[in-house]
Specification:
182 residues, alpha/beta, TIM Barrel, 2 domains, 7-stranded mixed β-sheet
Length: 182
């Protein structure tokens, strides 16, 4: 199951393909190594192509091929353990380098990490088999503001900016309702 934003989870239409495996028709994701080695062949195929990035891979190599990676329709960032935060750094790095396509977090994740994933720049999360989808949806809707601005923040507001805006509104309202001294 996939979770995008705070919407209802739905089935995944992408298929992960191992190195050496023949590419089926449709949307496929391949390893970074295969993506870089077979760029021309992958670009010529009819279906969309995405790439898996494992946090243990050489990210300097990925950074050196940012232009090639930017052509991928999807980048899946693998989280080998919920305690392994390197995936968050990978997602943020991809966004800082200008990747505009979909970034998906996959692997061993917890529902309470969802907001952090979105703020780093992830568009979707692959919910593991056996995880409660309703728990993920509840977490997706739990927070509307954060202390720090994030990549995916659609408004320029964080908690501090929201408080400042409320204070300005209160001051304006007080100034309007307070009679002028004569």
């Amino acid at each position: 199951m996939l979770l995008r934003g705070v919407s209802v989870a739905h089935e995944d239409s992408w298929r992960a393909v191992d190195d050496g495996e023949d590419l089926p028709a449709g949307k496929v994701t391949v390893t970074l190594r295969r993506f870089l080695a077979e760029r021309e062949q992958l670009a010529a195929r009819a279906g969309e192509v995405g790439v898996h990035i494992d946090p243990g891979e050489d990210l300097a190599l990925a950074a050196g091929h940012a232009a090639a990676i930017s052509t991928a329709a999807l980048v899946s960032v693998i989280f080998p353990a919920f305690t392994d935060g390197r995936g968050f750094s990978v997602i943020r790095s991809l966004r800082r380098r200008g990747y505009r396509g979909e970034i998906r977090a996959i692997g061993k994740l917890l529902p309470d990490q969802f907001d952090f994933l979105r703020r780093c720049g992830a568009d979707s999360v692959e919910i593991a088999d056996g995880d409660d989808v309703q728990t993920w949806l509840r977490e997706a809707r739990a927070l509307s503001l954060a202390y720090q601005s994030g990549y995916a923040q659609t408004t320029a507001r964080n908690i501090l900016e929201a408080r400042a805006q409320a204070n300005r509104a209160t001051l304006r309202a007080t100034a309007i309702t307070t009679p002028a001294k004569t």
